[in-house]
């Protein structure tokens, strides 16, 4: 792959962050990718164009232009002027909704080989988030190709390989290290960072009763939001014990996590890849990276059908970037949509994803990357970080807020975060009550409030 890239790059013309590939046609087929990846994707498209000519006995019909953009703003640019936009572009998965709506700007994918590749290569969560229903029919609108999820950074000089597999083991290590040493902390106290508990799944069946904005219409999404199941109740009872144990979990506070880890006051961090440098600076050669651990429901935690002895696996929001086809682009409307789908299939293939990881450190969306990609077998922290993120994607869901912007508002900005914190610390911060949510009835009431906020933006649900 690296030899291919090096050779192809000699044929690519660089203008700012725009790569124009030599071709006989003056009509441009524009592809937007992330700024950090433009060089790589220009190189592989150069190879694609060369392979096309060899296979078909004729030149590729368009001049391919690969442009590096800020993926987070690409959707807004398309909405402003879709006809002037690229044929193919990248966005975070949670931007899909605004481009689909009731009159999609992006084209549904119809290539059977591309759809088969999406189905075969991606975790269930990624496959689900790229689909939407229009007029009663479900369509696939994008192809995942870059992923992201939470992992555990930990001090391997104080936590053994066996202990790091369970929260109980990490708590034992913390107790051994000192009466005031915490097992773990989080990057922040919002619902994203506390998703390890809210999205926890049965370790045997990889299932959870939690639903967050599931459905094909807005009304269905709001209705299908649920966090009061027996497994969630049991997990939060466990979480209350965990966060109130002297050697358990700690919410984010005034002292930064890296300072706490450097001083040995916290042994691990539930974090994202973007915190790697900070944790590495704090722990140095003692840095370990693992999947988020499991925990076991005790008799004290058991609730309803979630019985004592049930093993739960910490969950995560596992997000992805996707490639879409602009349904308003003149190449697409002019009859060459299949050609664009062939390119998307190529760019999101596991082989190109592996090269993207090697050259750009982009985490693959491909579900078997951790086991199959040679670069992920390297004995480096960077390879281990990528491997553990891919593994965690199987235990997570993408953030489901793309359909409408107020779903994100309800989930993150209407008070659910505070209720989650209060439940875990068994307090009522609004009324300065230090003892709250200390019975099953009160806990269920608290989770019902969170559920109401997800649905309506209001604690009352009305």
UniProtKB/TrEMBL annotation:
Pfam family of the protein (one): SBP_bac_8
One Gene Ontology term from the biological process aspect of the record: maltodextrin transmembrane transport
Name of this chain's protein: Extracellular solute-binding protein
Protein family membership: Belongs to the bacterial solute-binding protein 1 family.
GO cellular component, one term: ATP-binding cassette (ABC) transporter complex, substrate-binding subunit-containing
InterPro entries assigned to the protein according to its UniProt record, in alphabetical order: SBP
Organism: Candidatus Fimimonas gallinarum
Record flagged with keyword Signal: yes
Keywords linked to the UniProt accession: Signal, Transport
One example GO MF annotation: maltose binding
Keyword Mitochondrion: no
SUPFAM superfamilies: Periplasmic binding protein-like II
Signal peptide segment: none
């Amino acid at each position: 792959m690296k030899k291919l890239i090096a050779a192809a790059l000699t044929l690519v013309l660089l203008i700012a962050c725009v790569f124009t590939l030599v071709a006989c046609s003056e009509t441009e087929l524009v592809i937007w990718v992330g700024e950090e990846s433009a060089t790589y994707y220009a190189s592989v498209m150069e190879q694609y164009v060369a392979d096309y000519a060899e296979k078909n006995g004729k030149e590729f019909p368009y001049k391919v232009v690969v442009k590096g953009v800020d993926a987070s703003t690409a959707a807004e640019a398309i909405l402003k002027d879709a006809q002037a936009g690229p044929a193919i572009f990248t966005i975070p998965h949670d931007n899909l909704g605004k481009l689909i709506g009731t009159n999609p700007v992006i084209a549904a994918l119809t290539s059977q080989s591309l759809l088969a590749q999406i189905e075969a290569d991606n975790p269930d969560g990624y496959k689900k988030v790229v689909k939407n229903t229009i007029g009663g029919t479900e369509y696939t609108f994008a192809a995942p190709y870059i992923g992201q999820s939470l992992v555990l950074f930990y001090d391997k000089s104080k936590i053994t390989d066996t202990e790091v597999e369970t929260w109980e083991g990490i708590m034992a290590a913390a107790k051994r290290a000192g009466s005031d040493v915490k097992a773990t902390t989080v990057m922040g106290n919002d619902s994203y960072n506390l998703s390890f508990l809210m999205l926890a799944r049965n370790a045997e069946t990889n299932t959870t009763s939690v639903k967050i904005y599931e459905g094909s219409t807005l009304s269905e999404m709001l209705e299908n939001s649920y966090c009061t199941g027996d497994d969630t109740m049991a997990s939060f009872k466990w979480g209350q014990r965990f966060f109130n144990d002297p050697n358990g979990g700690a919410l984010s506070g005034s002292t930064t996590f890296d300072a706490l880890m450097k001083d040995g006051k916290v042994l691990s961090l539930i974090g994202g890849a973007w915190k790697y440098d900070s944790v590495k600076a704090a722990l140095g050669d003692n840095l370990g990276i693992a999947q988020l651990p499991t925990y076991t429901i005790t008799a004290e935690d058991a609730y309803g059908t979630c019985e004592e002895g049930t093993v739960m696996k910490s969950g995560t929001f596992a997000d992805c970037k996707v490639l879409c086809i602009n349904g308003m682009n003149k190449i697409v409307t002019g009859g060459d949509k299949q050609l664009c789908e062939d390119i998307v299939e190529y760019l999101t293939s596991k082989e190109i994803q592996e090269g993207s990881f090697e050259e750009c450190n982009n985490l693959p969306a491909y579900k078997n990357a951790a086991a199959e990609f040679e670069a992920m077998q390297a004995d480096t922290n960077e390879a281990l970080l990528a491997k553990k993120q891919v593994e965690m994607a199987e235990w997570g869901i993408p953030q489901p807020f793309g359909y409408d912007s107020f779903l994100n508002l309800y989930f993150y900005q209407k008070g659910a975060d505070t209720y989650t914190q209060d439940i875990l610390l068994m307090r009522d911060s609004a009324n300065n009550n230090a003892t709250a949510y200390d019975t099953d009835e009160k806990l269920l009431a608290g989770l019902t409030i969170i559920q109401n906020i997800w649905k309506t933006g209001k604690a009352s649900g009305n």
